[in-house]
Amino acid sequence: MTGLAPGPGRAVAAPGRGDGPGLAPRLLSLYTWLLILYAIVPIAVMVVFSFNQAPSGRVTLKWLGFTTAWYGHAFAVADLTDALVHSLEVAFGSMIVSVILGTPLALALARYRFRGKAVTDMVIFADIAAPAVVVGASLLSFFLTLNLPRGLLTILMAHIAFNVAFVVVVVRARVSGLDRALDRAAADLGATPWVAFWKVTFPLILPGIVAAGLLAFALSIDDLIITSFVSGQTLTFPLWIYGAVKTGIPPQVFVLSTFIFLGGVVLTLINTIVVRRNLP
Amino acid sequence: MSGRGKARAGAGSARAERAPARRRDRRIGKAAVPYLLGLPSWVYLLLFFLVPLASMLALSAAVGDPIVGYSYGGHFAEFLDAIGQYHRQLLRSFYYGALATLVTLAIAYPAAYWIAFHGGRHKSTYLFLIMLPFFVSFVIRTVAWQFILADQGFLFGQLKSWGLISDRFYILSTQWAVIGGLVYNGLAYYVLPLYVAIEKIDRRVVRAAGDLYADPASTFLRVILPLSAPGVFAGFLLVFVTDVGDFVNAQILGGPGTYMVGNVIQDSFFVNQDYPMAAALSSILMFLLMVAIFLYARAFGRERIQEYAA
Amino acid sequence: MSKRSNSGRTIDPALLRGLTEARVSRRGLLQAGALGLGMAALGPLAARTARAAERDWEAWWKQQKPTDELVFANWPYYIDVADKGAKNPSLDDFTKASGIKVKYLEVIQGNAPFYAKIAPVLKAGQSIGYDLMVMTNTWQLTELVMQDWLVPLWKEKLPNFKKYASPSVVSPDYDKGNRYTLAWQSGFTGIAYNPKLTKREITSIDDLWDPAFAGHVGMMSDITELGSVALLKLGIDPAKSTKADWEKAAKVLKEQKDKGLVRQYYDQSYITALEHGDTWISQAWSGDVFQANAKGFKDLKFVAPKEGVMLWHDNMMIPVGAKNPLSALAWMNFYYTPKTAALIEDYVNYVCPVPDAKDVILKDLQDPDVANSVLVFPTEAMYAKAHDFYTFKSYAEYQSWNSVFTPIIQG
């Protein structure tokens, strides 16, 4: 890392001396763009090859010519579409349940001192820090032990289990940032705690809840490792692809992923714009 | 999406603790409130996180075979068998994890630094661009690398046809492909905590160092780097744990001799049906990582790591 | 019971160290609770349900009511497709003829992984949701039979099998009298290669050990296939091999790996690696190579090496708990007609179990390449080169093979 060393100092010093950005920041800027390029290359491959011809119905390495045919047949591979539907179901389900479960705990952690708080913190941290393969293997051990058939329900249970912790952390950060004076004011004006919560606190932490929900949704829809343990014979979108890689993936995989990509980007941009607008 | 959520989560949970609002503590039932609020999550995490860990440990010591089934017994030798048979894969996982995480740090830091200090009005745009891979499924990203790195693919195929590299040259199926995949997939996870940490550094401190005639190198090494340490450590933890437990990169990009412990656990469950072996290996992995994490947390403070990691 | 609490107590230290800190009383409480739950849950796994003895399957079959559904689990790219993957003409013909709707699922990627997915469900006495599935004549098939997890077929409803089946799939060694299975396809395991990259003809299994191809040799991760090819290389008939032979075979495989010859141990993905040029020469299944040729990878060639090829059979079978067993029989019978077999064969290009399909492919489908291929409609000379897999007589024997060959792929 010492190679970067000249950068910061010059960077900070230069503007003071009024001779424009120095060499190091310019190099770093170039570097950042290269890193962005590196981050984007695989995405470009995905998008570009979703327009490639594939006479065999499988994606090929060679460029065989431009076509939009796969977009016309985006949902032609029935079990891939089913898998995507499963993924969406689990993502919605786990988003909603984990927000409902996690938000109250986040409130408790942010606003109260209580015996067991340290342990709770520890468990939440362990849930986030535990490697996915261990979480998956332990859930599978548990389901095997219970003789519980694996399927959509066990996938949902597993996803809630890891999402709860993320929701707690995200919402808690939002709650902690709030000014307690507001609900004390509400209480002084005679509001019951219940009313004060719904009229004052809840609207204020709502952005945190939404952010937590979006994070939960994103984590769920992309999860492969934990899901691979608890899915039984049910396939989610990532699992289907993971299986199909062995024999070659149909172009529809790239098409649907491009949709998801664009959907995510658009949603985020809208979210950003809305948040900016609401800021004073 | 996850990136944005994470960014926001970074702010402010360190200030979590405030004096409870005494005045509302009039009613006796008040003390029960945090427990009632926490109960649903607790029950859930108990049932679907802690109990499963316990049942995994119990399964490690089970006896039997796939035909007659497994029953619980005190076969603790399974742990020794697991280490005896698979210590290479275990060590390899830690080696790949450490190397990949260091490389990720090395390539992420300069960009995070530049965005935080020189990004100007477009900071969030740069971050957003680096975060774009988040919007593409992890498997797809890895598959895309398999495409890019293929021997006769558009990259190496072209270089080979120009005679720039030997026909025999390949990266796919080597440990470099696996480590490269881990690096790529960890990048966005590392840039974010680094950015948040560097962004928080008070510019006046940096300027003061310059005013005191610290040369750029020592300003960086003695001021900026230490102040960004929380991000460095939090990101390291997050990326390292993810990398050590990964099996997807090794499966899609690896070759003979790149088996990681995650692959062995997968095989034991889903090919050989050797549940005790799978459970024992996961338990060992969990134990090793937990020890590492808690030493790390003790040295560094869990609150801060958590704050950045999430 | 005492055993359980034993294992319970040992859980303690690791969990303790791993998950908690301070506040002893709470932690103790929680753990007691967690362990209590965990232990309570151990029951079902420990108690293995005793299988019902011989059932009167004839009577069972007669009780079954016809349904208009069929759930068919198969391997990927193992049936005819049309219209960009949206249609399967053979299945559509079947639906037209019988009124039975087919849910066709490409969920089988390998015998062992698929078996490991369904076994716990079957063991729990639950339905796996498939009425028909296709598995190879390897250990997992033996295991399914040993565990009584297959429904014996009702021969009365399968007249076409008697009429059209190739002698090579009638009453095979692994399923005498076709009690449980009918062949879907057979196939040869030989060598595929890309002459442009190997720059020479391939004729022998020894070529898989040629240092000239270092880093570009594909081997299979299926340990039955992997062990068998090494046995053939050593001149040993896999079906008659012994444990000592297996160890010799493992030794040459290990040498091959240690010298850096092996690119990867592949599952079905070996064919993608060949297509991409990652491997120049690879263990391969006959039909895949034809399919690769058909989709534009014209360079790839399949060869039956002089040491011999492995002949395997993928079989249709009905798992217990199937909801539409009569539909499954109806499809099996429908499949064993020259027309349907030809439709499918012309796409999958393995070994056709219905010899009369040859004429249909030649005349109606006008595809002489497939019809005249000895790999699709093998000649006697071709069969003479073919070897069967070793048949494992017990789990212990399979485990022994496993322990010899698994370390090679997991290196």
Describe the overall structure:
The complex is a heterotrimer of chains A (280), B (310) and C (411). Chain A is mostly helical and 280 residues long. Chain A has two domains: 2-72, no CATH class; 78-249, Orthogonal Bundle (MetI-like fold). Helix content of chain A is 75%, strand content 0%. Chain A has helices at residues 6-17, 23-49, 69-72, 78-111, 117-129, 132-146, 152-176, 181-188, 193-222, 225-230, 237-244, 251-278. The longest helix of chain A is centred in the middle third of the chain and has 34 residues, at 78-111. Chain B is mainly α. Chain B is 70% helix and 3% strand. In chain B, strand 1 (62-65) and strand 2 form a beta hairpin. Mean pLDDT of chain B is 85; it is low at 1-25. Chain C folds into two domains: 67-186 and 312-387, Periplasmic binding protein-like II (D-Maltodextrin-Binding Protein, domain 2), CATH 3.40.190.10; 188-309 and 394-409, 3-Layer(aba) Sandwich (D-Maltodextrin-Binding Protein, domain 2). In chain C, strands 1, 2, 3, 4, 5, 6, 7, 8, 9 and 10 form a ten-stranded mixed beta sheet that branches. Chains in contact: A-B, A-C, B-C. The interface between A and B is large, with 123 and 128 residues.
